[in-house]
Amino acid sequence: MNKIKTLIVDDEALARDKLAIFLQEEEDFEIVGQCSNGIEALQLLRDSYPDLLFLDVQMPEMDGMELLRNIDVQKIPCIILVTAYDNYALQAFEYHALDYLLKPFDRERFLMTIKRVKEQMLLHSQGNHQTQLLTYLKDSLPKEKYLEKIVVKDGGKIFFVKTKDVEWVESAGNYLKLHIGKSMHLIRETMNAFEQKLNPQEFVRVHRSSLVNIEAIHHLESWGNTEFTITLSSGYQVQSGRSYYSSIRQKLQL
Length: 254
Prior knowledge:
Blueprint: E1 4-9, H1 13-24, E2 29-35, H2 38-47, E3 52-56, H3 64-70, E4 78-83, H4 89-94, E5 99-102, H5 107-123, H6 126-140, E6 149-154, E7 157-162, E8 168-172, E9 175-180, E10 183-188, H7 191-197, E11 203-207, E12 210-213, E13 217-223, E14 227-232, E15 237-239, H8 245-251
Parallel strand pairs: 1-2, 1-3, 3-4, 4-5
Antiparallel strand pairs: 6-7, 8-9, 8-12, 9-10, 11-12, 13-14, 14-15
Helix pairs in contact: 2-3
């Protein structure tokens, strides 16, 4: 069996180092990269085809679940989810992760995972393995009905806003500002939670405090080498964040 090319993605340096030390003691494994967030990993996965991915769930900018939704289906490796929170176990099964490591794990638990990985690699040739991964990815991607209407309260009135009419969303503390043309509505919600309810084919996160309706984008202008000025149909301009440059380019196929 060829060496199992492995990518480690975790925002905690100590966690990455621990996995690297354990893996370096296993002669069948080769570490091909270490990333501190999902955006870095997404960039690396464009250029390489690791066999195995140790993936932290909770990370800033782009978390593990969002990374999985954005990986090219032809490049999906075997997945080991790594997290300090046991409430993500169900999602591990939903994404057909080969295993689920709960931090802090010891060497004995790590070796159990390694054993499963080796068995998986031996059971499937690379071609069959890719076919299996493509099948379970199709089955495991989120199937929930994405948010189509948003409940907005204004004084004593309660009314609905169609999601497709929202041009862009801006965070404001514990609230979000929904921009619809020249109008603005305020709802109590966090940006991360709200983003998960939206169809990723219709909205793109452009900054830690803003996301944009793709259909509302009129044009983009590069600002330096890592940012965009995004002009919307209403004429309003939104500035992207540096850490979102790669994900914007991929989502908009730039």
